[in-house]
Design a protein that fits this description.
This protein has 207 residues and is α+β, with helices and mostly antiparallel strands. The chain has one domain: Endonuclease, Chain A (2-Layer Sandwich), CATH 3.30.870.10.
Length: 207
């Protein structure tokens, strides 16, 4: 039995939702490029909930496997933003993606993956991806480029604290969150990726 007095608040809430819909859509338009004259730093963007959520943690609680699951799901394109990029399993997954014809593009922090890469693992991983036909770029215009994001097929977004490194998989406390099949969220992150991509430079192969 419906409680008395609930209809009016519900109608009011629906009216408020309709009234707020245009500003949310306008903000999203500014961030994803449908309004070129708007500044890129237009502020937070509200994105409708969609798809499904999957999470995993480190050390050794499925985080690396979930990242690789997203990479292996891609059929057309992968966009990657990384602070530290030294993970051999993640690199192998991206190489598999290239082999099946996926358009792979990475923007990684310049300093942590070149001058501060004492092990040489980052340089080797990035060089292998360049040799496989991936578009790899480094960015040095920020204090650090601290993003850790994968966008698969302009639809699925992986994010969290997880650096693409062995330490993140096996020694650190980390988290990975994947929003499967949420194209509106993916568009917002793709706009962020494109901003950084424009500010980056091509990585030159070095081993």
């Amino acid at each position: 039995m419906r409680r008395p007095g609930r209809t009016l608040p519900l109608l009011t809430a629906l009216a408020l939702t309709a009234a707020l819909a245009w500003p949310v859509d306008a903000a999203l338009a500014r961030r994803v490029g449908r309004a070129p004259s708007a500044p890129e730093d237009a502020g937070p963007v509200a994105v409708p909930a969609a798809g499904s959520i999957e999470v995993a943690f480190s050390p050794d609680e499925g985080s690396e496997g979930l990242v690789i699951k997203v990479i292996d799901s891609a059929r057309s394109e992968l966009r990657v933003m990384a602070y530290t990029f030294t993970s051999a399993p993640v690199t192998r997954a991206l190489l598999r993606a290239r082999k099946r014809g996926v358009d792979v593009r990475l923007v990684v922090d310049e300093r942590s993956n070149t001058t501060e890469d004492r092990s040489g693992k980052a340089r080797a991983a990035l060089s292998a991806l360049v040799d496989a036909g991936a578009q790899v770029r480094t960015i040095g215009v920020y204090a650090i480029a601290h993003d850790k994001v994968l966008i698969a097929d302009a639809s699925t977004v992986e994010l969290g604290s997880f650096n693409y490194s062995d330490a993140a998989a096996h020694r650190n406390s980390e988290n990975v969150l994947v929003n499967w099949h949420n194209p509106q969220l993916a568009r917002v992150y793709l706009a962020h990726f494109e901003r950084n991509y424009r500010q980056s430079v091509a990585y030159e192969t070095r081993y």
